[in-house]
Amino acid sequence: AAKEGGRGRCEYFAPWLGERNRRLVSIEQALRDALRRGELCLHWQPRVDIEGWQVVSAEALLRWRHPELGHISPAEFIPVAEKCGVIGEIGAWVLTQACIEAQALLTGLSVSVNVSPVQLMRPTMLDDVRRALQASGLAPHRLEVEITEGIFIDDTPEALANLHALKDLGVQIALDDFGTGYSSLAYLRRFPFDTMKIDRAFMRELLNQHDARAIVRTIVDLAKVLGMRTVAEGVEEPAQLEILRRAGCQDMQGYLVARPMPVAELHDLMAHWHLHARPEPGELPLSL
Ligand code: C2E
Ligand code: MG
Ligand code: MG
Ligand code: MG
């Protein structure tokens, strides 16, 4: 690999790399320019209160369309951005852009922004959030930061300090992908989470594994005891929704209601929300 083009920039000629690694290297190089070239944008997925059936907030999800590689999933490029150090710049852009779009078009909704564990540990994290709030005029209590459960393996003091500082600003904190990582009860009590997002993996099992329902009920009860709101991720079937409702889960997101979409489309969806009644479950596949 030959270094070229200034600090932090690598051009590779590496025939020994496999195809997968070559793709990662070209993603890394392209990612550094993606922001400048305006290739990044946000899509929004609504979060709906299951009992009242209202849209209560929306989650900003990053989208990248590369001119040659086409659409690249954040699940693929966020880890690359974390490794090559460009996550700070991208994360700051997402925060500001999300707050601006929400303040302009998502009146009355809270806004969820995914924050990478790497970003959370950076000393500039707090300034990024303050700048986003200032630039947009969004009230701090309307902003929620989603942090994926994986980080709590490391449990760094920097991350903990930043979480508490965010809370002091009035920002809400959600634990994303709960049930896939390693959170212990001690962590759940020590970290100042407002919201627990139950991972999509549980939704698949809800329909055919009886114990999955008991597990989800237990997660919801646990969250309640700890004073957290619960959100089910990846809800696709009316039967899943009904099981979640009976378990006392407060909110849901998923294709059953809407896929992530541009902010203007979400604005339209909300204007016509009265047409979206809660889907009826019909017969549940297993009796409760
Ligand atoms: P996440 O935060 O857990 O977001 C939920 C993912 O599930 C999104 O994928 C969403 O499109 C997808 N999803 C929502 N409802 C359903 C459903 O009913 N069925 C199925 N099969 N999928 C559903 P997406 O947008 O590809 O994002 C993947 C992950 O990438 C996110 O998981 C998040 O961890 C990360 N990510 C996305 N945007 C950002 C960002 O701006 N910053 C950071 N740091 N990470 C981001
Ligand atoms: Mg999320
Ligand atoms: Mg995630
Ligand atoms: Mg998630």
Automatic annotation (TrEMBL):
Indicate the segments forming the EAL domain, all copies: 24-274
Domain of life of the native organism: Bacteria
* Protein's name according to its UniProt entry: EAL domain-containing protein
Give the species this sequence originates from: Ideonella margarita
Question: Entire protein: which part is shown?
Answer: 497 to 784 of 799
